[in-house]
Each structure stands twice: as C-alpha cells, then as structure tokens.
Write a structure and sequence with these properties.
There is one protein chain. The protein is of the alpha/beta class and about 240 residues long. It starts with 7 loop residues before the first helix and ends with a helix. It has one domain.
Length: about 240
C-alpha cells in the first residue's frame, strides 16, 4: 500500500513475468501485459479463472488496485441481493455479505499460488486512520484504504503487507536570526516498510525488520535472507 504516485504500479511491473488485472486505469505508459480494464467483479474473477485454467508463461499476477476492487465487490453484492447500495442492507450487514465475494477472490489467488506457482501481488492505496488503543493516547496510522471488514480479511491473508514511502528524516536547523526549527529531509529514494510500527499497519511472516527498496530483486532478496537466518536457527 502507499499514496498515489509513490510507484506501486512501477514496482509491480518488476515482478517476474507479470500480468496485471486492472480495476483502475493506472498503468499509464508502463508497457506490461494486462487484461482489459475490469469494470465488474465478474471481469476480475474471469481473469483469475483464465490464469488458472489456461496455459501461459506468466509467473506473477498483479491486482491493481484492491481498493477499487472493493467498489466492484460492493456493486456485485448489491446486484446479487437486489439492494440499491451497500448501506441498504441494514447496519453493517452489506459489508459482511461482501466478505463472501472477497473470500471467493482470495480462494482463486491461493489456487494460482498453489496450483500454478504464481506470485500474487495486490496493490492498494493508503489512508490515515485514528487508532484508539485502550491503554495509550490515540494516534494516527497508515492503513489500507479499505472498509474495516475488508481490511481485516486482506491483512490476514497476506504473507507480507508493506507500506511504500520515501525515507524522511527530521533535521534541526535555525533561521538567520538564530531561531531554531525542524524540517523534513528526504533523499527521494522509495522503500517498502513491512515491520510493525505505530505509524503504519504492516506485517510480514519473514521476520524482515528493515526497509526494502521498491524492486522485486530487493524484496525477494530480503525474504530469502531472512528465511535462511530462520532456518539456521531452527537447525541449530
């Protein structure tokens, strides 16, 4: 996940032999194999079924983006139930009903991984949410731009949920008159942060504790490196 324009789609294009399933028109001038723009949930599922059932040389499927997919799922949920909007079901019921279709989608991703050996990558925009823990003061956190039910399901499913951002540091400076102030400084390099922290709702199952450059090579290198360390500890 990350803000618009941070380079999520560009990174997805660096994955091995990728093909994109687009729910938004975000490829721009990036020349990479892709299905026609999905305008319905059935379009997305049709693309996933095609990858599962047909012979092809693609090694990665990139869904871009799942927050736009959420809108397609809500529209599909309403059509199936004869409702005007996701709110028309009654308090919270529409969002719960939509999870049925989210699970169908996740099941196909799992099958592509298990039966076709494909890497599955889901891109998403981010949003700031106020978190109110019971024992500390409230704080703001970057999270997936999804409804809380969708967010919980996607987060549980992911092996790695990363936040894409530029590395920023706060430096002290002072005016010509000697008045001290702080300013943000960045070298412009973009990274994936996937270790848990208060400012971002991220996770990974590979014990990665440091930021990763936004490329496939850097990502898989970190995964393999951490996996090797874990194996050595187990063997010991």
């Amino acid at each position: 996940m990350g803000s618009a324009g941070i380079g999520k789609t560009t990174m997805g294009a660096t994955f091995p032999a990728p093909i994109f399933i687009q729910t938004e028109d975000g490829l721009g001038k990036i020349d990479v194999p892709n299905f026609p723009l999905s305008k319905s949930f059935d379009d997305v599922m049709g693309a996933l079924h095609a990858l599962l059932n047909e012979d092809h040389d693609y090694k990665s499927v990139i869904v871009d983006s799942i927050d736009w997919l959420q809108m397609l799922i809500y529209k599909h949920t309403c059509q199936k139930a004869g409702q005007q909007s996701i709110e028309s079901f009654g308090y919270g019921k529409g969002y719960t009903e939509a999870l049925t279709y989210w699970r169908d989608y996740i099941d196909l991703l799992n099958r592509l991984r298990d039966e076709k050996g494909m890497v599955t990558c889901q891109l998403a925009h981010s949003q700031q949410i106020e978190v109110k823990p019971p024992n500390v003061e409230p704080f703001h956190q970057w999270q997936l731009k999804l409804h809380k039910h969708s967010h919980a399901l996607i987060k549980e499913h992911c092996d790695l949920l990363g936040f894409c951002d530029v590395k920023t540091s706060i430096v002290k400076s002072e005016t010509a008159g000697g008045k001290a102030y702080q300013k943000a400084k960045s070298d412009g390099k973009r990274y994936i942060y996937c270790n848990k922290s208060p400012e971002r709702d991220t996770k990974n199952r590979y014990q990665i504790e440091t930021e990763i450059e936004m490329t496939w090579d850097a990502l898989v290198g970190a995964i393999k490196g951490e996996t090797a360390k874990v194996k050595e500890k187990v063997d010991a």
